[in-house]
Structures are given as C-alpha cells and as structure tokens.
Amino acid sequence: MSFPTVTIFGVPISKMNMSQTLEYLTKVIQERRPHQVITANPIMIMAALQDPAYMRMMKQAELIVPDGAGVVWAAGYVGNPVQERVAGYDLLHELMKTGQHRGWRVYLVGASSEVIEAAADRLNQLYPELKLVGFRDGFFGEKEDSDVIRAIRETEPDILLVGRSAATQEPWIAQHKEELGVPVVMGIGGSFDVLSGKLKRAPSLFQKLRLEWFYRLLQEPWRYKRMLVLPKFAMKVIREKENVQKP
C-alpha cells in the first residue's frame, strides 16, 4: 500500500489526513504486517540529521505522520503541503475509538508504573469495549527486552503503543518490530502522561496557534534545551529551502 509523502531533510512525511491515515492503519491490521508508526516533529528530524543511524531508522519506518506543527509548516513553506496535521495524541484516540468496535487488542508500554496504570484506567473509561490486553512501565534495559517482548507477543495485540524516552522509543521499536509481530507499533512520546492526568494537553487556542510546544514548556521547564532546536529547524528550512525536499 502506497501513499503520498513529502521529504523534509531526507525524512519521508505522510501527506494523508487523519481519516486516510486511520483507513490505512485499519488495512495494516487486517493484513497483519508489522508497521512502525512515527509521529514526527522538528526535534526528531534535526536528531536524524545529526545521527546517521537515527536517519536510517526513520527512513525504514513504514509510516511517519506530521505530528509537530513545525513539520506541517515546513511542508507548506517548500510548496508541498500535507493535508493536515496528524497529531499522535489524536491518532491514538481515533485508533482506540475504531478499535473498540472492531475488536482490536491493545497493549501499552511506557512511562512509570503509576502513570501507565492511570493511563490504562483512563482508556478503559473512555473506551469501555476496548480490548486492553496488557500494560507495563517503560523502565527496562536490554537484558529485559526478551521478557518484555515475550509478554507482549503472548497477548497477540493488534496495536502496541510505546511511550519511552526520545533516545530509546523509536530505535527500540525499529529493532524489535519484526520480533514483536504487532501490526501497528506506534511511538507516542508523552501521551501516557496526558492520558494519566499527570500533564494537561494544550488548550485548543494553543493548538490553533501552533504553540503546543510552548504550553508543554510551561509545564515542563526542564525541556527548554530540547525546545531550542525548534528555531534552528525553522531557520534551516528558510535558509535551505531549495534543498529541503532532496532525498
């Protein structure tokens, strides 16, 4: 199954809107082919430019959606716009909403034990018919990988949501995707924190103004160093406009 993309500094970003993305992932689940879904933002693209291994991993992912407002802006700025922003948090909810009616099985991995348990409870409240088949925290190392993978495989999920640190989330999924054998494996960053109530999602006004990053910074000031990458990304797109879409 193919879909239109726009390349941003070597990273292929899906141009599908939310409903098309959901339709695509529904087919993926029906066909049972392991898919890594990356919810891309400018910080990840800049990380890929600094790290060849991270770039290879992103290029090998089956689907990269335009999660960050900066990615949506960049595509429009170079004249090859995406249809709309496909925020990972919203895609998560669309998958759960569809999944509870289709009998999809869901497994959660990430965050602390308290946060992941609260996130699981919240999903059960929102989607009472959802088959939430398991969850566990994201604090484990390489020595525990095989046990974690075995536990996941035993529940035969259709969707695996992974919320770990930026350095381990996508690379871990890429490394173990085939072994996991789950049709949709999606990195969701801090979404478990929002689901659990630990963090609040930005109000709609901040979302419309593309200032979700600023709202998150207000809640987590320690993230400021990561946020400094955002203006660097914007300046790079402006300065290198003619080269942005080169493979």
Automatic annotation (TrEMBL):
GO molecular function: N-acetylglucosaminyldiphosphoundecaprenol N-acetyl-beta-D-mannosaminyltransferase activity
Glycosyltransferase keyword on record: yes
Key words of the record: Cell wall biogenesis/degradation, Glycosyltransferase, Teichoic acid biosynthesis, Transferase
Highest taxon of source: Bacteria
Pfam families reported for this sequence: Glyco_tran_WecG
Pathway membership, UniProt: Cell wall biogenesis; teichoic acid biosynthesis
Catalytic activity of the protein: UDP-N-acetyl-alpha-D-mannosamine + N-acetyl-alpha-D-glucosaminyl-di-trans,octa-cis-undecaprenyl diphosphate = N-acetyl-beta-D-mannosaminyl-(1->4)-N-acetyl-alpha-D-glucosaminyl di-trans,octa-cis-undecaprenyl diphosphate + UDP + H(+)
Listed EC numbers: 2.4.1.187
EC class: transferase
Role this protein plays: Catalyzes the conversion of GlcNAc-PP-undecaprenol into ManNAc-GlcNAc-PP-undecaprenol, the first committed lipid intermediate in the de novo synthesis of teichoic acid.
Protein family: Belongs to the glycosyltransferase 26 family. TagA/TarA subfamily.
Protein name: N-acetylglucosaminyldiphosphoundecaprenol N-acetyl-beta-D-mannosaminyltransferase
Protein's organism: Paenibacillus allorhizosphaerae
